[in-house]
Amino acid sequence: MSDLLFAIPFPQIDPVFFRLGPLAFRWYGLMYLLGLLAAYFLIKARATAKNFPFSREQLSDLIVFAALGVFLGGRLGYVLFYNLPFYLENPLKIFAVWEGGMSFHGGFLGTCIALWIYSRRRGIAPYTIADLAAGVAPIGLGLGRIGNFINGELFGRPTDVRWCMVFPHGGPDCRHPSQLYQAALEGLLLFTVLTVINRLKTPPGTVFWSFIAGYGMVRFFVEYFRQPDSHLGLFFGLFSMGQLLSLPMVALGLFMIVRGYRTSTADR
Q1: Which of 20, 27, 106, 150 is the most buried (most CB within 10 A)?
Q2: Residue 141 φ/ψ, nearest 5 degrees
Q3: Residue 59 domain flag
């Protein structure tokens, strides 16, 4: 094995980067903020390049709708998909977001609903909004995974690879830094692929459905390195909840991409 590969200690980064009296500002929250700011400026640039007249007010409202969809959908998705029995017994804990617990798949559904409402209210074609939003979504995903890494949460499965880490809450085992794998795949790789697709002449909705299929693929793959939720384990002894939720994304995304091209060809 290469000498460049080595076991590395987990960097003890304080999850709180700034304190002001009783207020604590966390890296994880900052990552969400940076993701939304990046989305604002990149959507603005891409809309301008495509000669779409987005006003500052329209763009600001778009980001607000998306943020609400991510937050509300992500929280409700975690409650429903990952720990429903606990929250049925402790309903007030649903609002204890500071204790953690967000689901990408729930956040994705919440964002889709929020942006659909936005497009209807503004009279903008849904696919126009969907393609713009999906093209920048990997930025927030990648930054969010870095936030997970700083928090030392959502770590990987035990391994003997030489770049493994011992996480503060992961026991004595050396584990895959799966948050970094996800940051690279869900963030950098998916953003690059979607940027290339965005520059091509494609049917409306192609970027959106490519995001859905692409995310499902990389999430399904990286789940083999990520520690399954302790209260759920593996279904059928093979698949995590994340994988079960990602498979329909792959199937639906690929189906809709093919359908879009067939419809586009038939209309010529």
Answers
A1: 106
A2: -65, -45
A3: yes
Q: How far is CA 81 from the centre of its chain?
A: 16
Classify residue 27: in a domain, yes or no. Answer: no
For 207-256, what is each residue's pLDDT tens digit? Answer: 999 999 999 999 999 999 999 987 788 888 889 989 999 999 999 999 99
Query: Rounded to an integer, what is the distance from CA 156 to the centroid of its chain?
Result: 17
Angle at 176 between CA 172 and CA 177, to 5 degrees: 105
Burial tier of 116 (Cβ tally within 10 Å: 0-12, 13-18, 19+): middle
Residues of the domain holding 197? 32-266
Mean pLDDT, the chain, rounded, equals 90
> What whole-number distance in Å separates Cα of residue 123 and Cα of residue 114?
14
Tell which residue, 41, 58, 57, 61, has the closest CA to residue 49. 41
Alpha helices for the chain (secondary structure H): 27-49, 56-82, 84-89, 104-122, 126-151, 178-182, 190-198, 206-222, 241-266
CA distance 131 to 156: 32
Closest CA to 70 of 107, 117, 109: 107
Domain contains 154: yes
Residue from 261, 134, 111 nearest 195 by CA: 134
Total number of domains constituting the chain? 1
Instruction: Give Cα 53 to chain centroid, integer Å.
Output: 28
- According to DSSP, the residues that pair with 156 across neighbouring strands are 226
The values of phi and psi at residue 225, to 5°, are -105, -15
User: In the 8-state DSSP scheme, what is residue 183?
Assistant: I
Q: From CA 67, how far away is CA 45, in angstroms rounded?
A: 19
Which of the 8 DSSP states describes residue 162? T
132 located within any domain? yes
- Confidence (pLDDT) at 2: 39
